[in-house]
Design a protein that fits this description.
- Chain A: It is found in: Cell membrane.
- Chain A: Keywords: ATP-binding, Cell membrane, Ion transport, Iron, Iron transport, Membrane, Nucleotide-binding, Transport.
- The complex is a heterodimer of chains A (272) and B (356).
- Chain A is built from nine helices and twelve strands.
- Chain A is of the alpha/beta class and 272 residues long.
- Chain A has one domain: P-loop containing nucleotide triphosphate hydrolases (Rossmann fold, 3-Layer(aba) Sandwich).
- In chain A, a hairpin with a 2-residue loop joins β1 and β2.
- Chain A is globular, with a radius of gyration of 19 Å.
- Mean pLDDT of chain A is 89; it is low at 1-5.
- Chain B is mainly α and 356 residues long.
- Chain B has one domain (82-355): Orthogonal Bundle (ABC transporter involved in vitamin B12 uptake, BtuC), CATH 1.10.3470.10.
- The longest helix of chain B has 36 residues, at 66-101.
- Mean pLDDT of chain B is 81; it is low at 1-13.
- The chains are: A alpha/beta (272), B mainly alpha (356).
- The A-B interface holds A 51, 54, 56, 76-77, 79-81, 84-93, 95-97, 99-100, 103-105, 107-108, 112-113, 115-116, 137-138, 153, 156-157, 160 and B 4, 16-18, 21, 233, 236-237, 239-240, 242-244, 246-247, 249-254, 296-297.
């Protein structure tokens, strides 16, 4: 892995679905070795931006730079060795074994006729034990709980051994305990292994708790980017999410905590 | 693959799940190989006259009487081997399509490849016959017509799907539409065409391997073996395609290119086998399902097992029609359809239940 390559920079990037600009001329530098969280209301373009960073969407204009290289010019496997991505709702056959899934993470490291190498085996072991699914290796995916399944998927992304890891709403379908469990795992990967993490999160308080850099998005653009303390103000949250709230200091984690109060532009009116 | 399984099983007493899967796959493959050889022998032995095993061995080693040599070498073996090749190739095509579309119902006939090839042949017969119903060109051009028809069908399906060609479901839907369109044109051509050609075309469409000669076997083998090798190489790249599109791409699979390549391989395998064996139906659906039941999920082993199952099914079907309906030559495709159609319905009903 070329560590020098790993600085990630989004340069006036636009992504379009037909005529609709889902990401509109965004520029953003993803800090190396930090956790960046993209947050914003539904349809603000955060997931699209994340996928465009991994070139799963073609850039309409602008580009994404990995070090000096435009990822638009990289080969598919080359990108997959630099940037891993966990999809929003990934799916795999129910009868696939956990270890089989994790092994798929080695795909970008294998040449056409090259057999399974020691490096591959070691990466798979590290990923499985790092995510605590080592004891589940022979289990079929269909027999796992939601939390276990999510860990197995994260293990697959880790086995890819990329410097940059993108996760698209990784805690969406998990209960509270597993949400914390999953994000603690991600933040440990960041702290202990120095991986650059880019997360899309819906829950503003989770975002504030785990982000080094918090990015607020709205209508395909970036409204503001900064530390959670800089961004989590009552005015900012009102203007981005359209909700009145009170922001207090989380007494445990030294991070701001948002208490939502009233929707300033209600979408569901109570009749009568 | 076998070597790796052996290595893994030596490495310690407690075998992991994947290693156990592999060991099992190897065992099943060996058993399937033996079954295939037994069916080859049985198909050579049974027929209008019974040729005992020791006489077959004698003929194969260069001995035997003249009539036995004729029956075994000229009448039976070419037919058996063509059935094995065509059945195997169609099964591999079905296996590839099911994997790449992540859909159990995919098969060459569903994608319009089989009917496209059949249309090619019927147009060939209709256009190039003179008034006395004799062909004005050599019958040797018939396979080319089938390949052209199959390629036209695949091209049409991709053209119709347009930018949505990356969606497996769209491809299947347009494939079914293309197959239906080809079938209706065939019907019109048959109803308006001369009787003799109609009978011949009908037999061919149903799929039959009788009246096969060594030239055809050789040509089929020469065309199919390189494609089968490519398919085996592609199988090594198949595993990520078990995942959803985003995940498959994020581990580095170039999905659009990969899909196009796999569809092309499947089209090539199908059209060559259809060109020589006719529109034998449902093998591309059935064989991969049986292989999967026996082997599990492994891509390379699954493909090899599909090929063997496909070969066994078509040889078996041909054997059944020879023994049951002799001396009438019923096309082997009739048997595969009798088994395959209810199974296809069962799959549809099961899918319905799962969705509803």
């Amino acid at each position: 892995m070329d560590k020098a390559l790993s600085g990630l920079k989004v340069d006036t990037l636009s992504v379009a679905y037909g005529a609709h600009l889902a990401v509109d001329a965004i520029s953003l530098t993803i800090p190396k070795g930090k956790i960046t969280v993209l947050a914003g209301p539904n349809g603000c373009g955060k997931s699209t931006l994340l996928r465009a960073i991994r070139r799963l969407h073609a850039a309409k204009t602008g580009r994404v730079l990995l070090g000096e290289t435009d990822i638009g010019k990289m080969r598919e496997k080359e990108i997959a060795r630099e940037i891993g991505l966990l999809a929003q709702s990934p799916s795999a056959p129910e009868d696939m074994r956990v270890e089989e899934l994790v092994r798929l993470g080695r795909y970008p490291h294998q040449a056409m006729l090259q057999p399974w190498s020691k490096d591959d085996a070691a990466a798979v072991e590290d990923a499985m034990f790092g995510t605590g699914v080592g004891h589940l290796r022979d289990r079929r995916l269909g027999s796992l709980s939601g939390g276990q399944l999510q860990r197995a998927w994260i293990a697959m992304v880790l086995a890819q051994q990329t410097d940059i890891v993108c996760l698209d709403e990784p805690v969406n379908h998990l209960d509270m305990a597993h949400q914390i469990d999953c994000l603690d795992l991600v933040s440990r990967l960041n702290r202990e292994h120095g991986r650059t993490v880019v997360l899309v999160l819906h829950d503003l308080n989770l975002a504030a708790r785990y982000a080094d850099l918090l990015v607020f998005m709205k209508d395909g653009g970036i409204v503001s980017a900064g530390s959670p303390h800089q961004l989590m103000t009552e005015e900012q949250i009102a203007s981005v999410f359209g909700i009145q709230c009170r922001v207090i200091e989380d007494p445990v984690h030294d991070r701001p905590l948002c208490i939502p109060m009233r929707n300033s532009s209600p979408r569901f009116e109570v009749q009568g | 693959m076998m070597g790796e399984a052996a290595k893994l099983s030596r490495s310690g007493p407690a075998l992991g799940g994947i290693a156990r899967d592999r060991a099992r796959a190897v065992t099943v493959l060996l058993i399937l190989l033996i079954v295939t050889l037994l069916v080859v022998l049985a198909s050579t032995a049974f027929g209008s006259t019974w040729v005992p095993l020791e006489k077959i061995v004698a003929v194969l080693t260069g001995g035997g009487e003249r009539t036995e040599r004729l029956i075994v070498l000229q009448l039976r073996l070419p037919r058996v081997l063509l059935a094995a090749l065509a059945g195997g190739a169609m099964a591999v095509a079905g296996f590839l399509l099911q994997k790449v579309t992540r859909n159990d119902l995919a098969s060459p006939s569903v994608l319009g490849v089989v009917d496209g090839a059949a249309l090619g042949v019927v147009i060939f017969l209709a256009l190039l016959s003179d008034e006395s119903n004799a062909l004005i060109v050599s019958i040797a051009w018939q396979p080319l017509a089938a390949v052209l028809g199959a390629c036209a069908a695949v091209a049409l399906v991709f053209a119709l799907s347009g930018r949505q060609a990356s969606s497996a479901v769209r491809l299947l839907l347009f494939g079914i539409a293309a197959a239906a369109a080809a079938k209706s044109v065939i019907m019109v051509l048959l109803l308006t065409g001369p009787i003799y050609r109609t009978t011949q075309a009908t037999r061919w469409i149903a799929g039959a391997v009788n009246e096969t000669n060594w030239g055809e076997v050789q040509m089929t083998a020469e065309l199919l073996l390189p494609v089968l090798l490519l398919a085996l190489l592609a199988a090594r790249r198949l595993p990520p395609s078990d995942l959803d599109d985003v995940s498959a791409q994020s581990v580095g699979l170039n999905l659009p290119v990969f899909r196009l390549a796999v569809f092309a391989l499947a089209a090539a395998l199908t059209s060559v086998s259809v060109a020589f064996a006719g529109g034998v139906s449902f093998i591309g659906l059935l064989a991969p399902h049986i292989a999967r039941l026996l082997i599990g999920r492994s891509a390379v082993a699954g493909m090899l097992a599909s090929a063997l199952c496909g070969a066994v099914i078509l040889m078996g079907a041909d054997l059944v029609v020879r023994v049951l309906f002799a001396p009438t030559e019923v096309p082997a495709g009739a048997i595969t359809a009798v088994i395959g159609a209810p199974y296809f319905l069962y799959l549809l009903l099961r899918k319905d239940r799962l969705n509803g």
